[in-house]
Amino acid sequence: MGYNVAIDGPAGAGKSTVAKRVAKELGYVYVDTGAMYRALAVFFLKQGLKPEDTEKIAEVCKNAEVSIGYENGVQQVYLNGENVTGQLREEAVGNMASVSSAIGAVRAQLLELQRELARTKDVVMDGRDIGTNILPNADVKVYLTASVETRAKRRYLELQEKGVACDLQEIAHDIEERDTRDMNREIAPLKQAEDAVYLDSSAMTIDEVVDAIKALCK
After folding, report:
1. What are the residue ranges of CATH 3.40.50.300 in the chain?
2. What count of Cα atoms within 13 Å lies in the side-chain half-sphere of residue 106?
3. Are 95 and 84 in contact (CB under 8 A)?
């Protein structure tokens, strides 16, 4: 049985950045569940589907196989055998993933793969419902968050560094909308597990957040 660290929280809270660091420093496997949902979102977009095509998404998701591998210790995500890691951070993919991840058939498609990884390896897994749904018996649970303003600014700077034209207020609006969707969806909504440690990273450095989570581990 693996040692499991579950990190939940809203979009832009820094979950992936922190989880990767924690996993690397503890020698655990990092599992980015959001990337797995984004891979399915890539599939849906390639099928010409829109977020509102929920019935069609539920129907075609069984034709998509998502797997993860590691190259030089870095997680790679594969969609039907194709490495789609480089496509996962596109805005359209993120918006599709936010909507499609609320569909039962989509969640079921990935649930068993995620749990199997946790059964067989020491993992740090991040997402929206790890501690509440996917790994309810995780050894350590953290709810990592930050203010909308902080998360929007982080995303704005990330896009600017990539040379992508963007608007800070628009990003903040998108984050608020995504929070509302994630927290109010019928299936596995985003919420803090009762036994999770609440961590607001708004005024913390990445190093401070990583150290705080490592201190909770065995």
Report:
1. 1-28+122-218, 32-121
2. 29
3. no
User: Do the Cβ atoms of 92 and 45 come closer than 8 Å?
Assistant: yes
Phi-psi region of 104 (alpha: psi -120 to 50; beta: other; left: phi over 0): alpha
End-to-end Cα distance, the chain: 15
pLDDT for residue 116: 85
Alpha-carbon distance 50 to 208, whole Å? 39
Please name the fold of domain 32-121. Answer: Rossmann fold (3.40.50)
Overall CATH class of domain 1-28+122-218: alpha beta
9 falls in which pLDDT band (50, 70, 90)? Answer: very high
pLDDT, tens only, 92-140:
999 999 899 889 899 888 898 889 889 988 999 998 899 999 999 999 9
